[in-house]
Design goal:
51% of the residues lie in helices and 0% in strands. The chain contains 2 helices and no strands. By secondary structure, the protein is mainly alpha-helical. The longest helix has 21 residues.
Length: 72
Amino acid sequence: MCRSIKTLRPPFTDEVTEEDIRAAALQYVRKISGFRAPAAHNAEAFDGAVEEITRASTALLASLQVRGSAAR
C-alpha cells in the first residue's frame, strides 16, 4: 500500500476535506498504475479513475460508524 496515503477517519483525522480525499485517490491511482503523470493517451482513463475513487472514498467515509465516537 502507498505509505503516503494517510487515514482519513476519526480518531486519526478530525477534519477531512474534498482535497484530502482527492489527494489520497490520486496517490492510489499513481501507485497502482505506475505513472506519476499519465501520457496524453492515458490521461482520460487516469483522471476518470481518480474521480471514481474520490467518489467511492467520500461515500465510504460518510457511511463509516466509528465505535466510541459521537455521531456526526
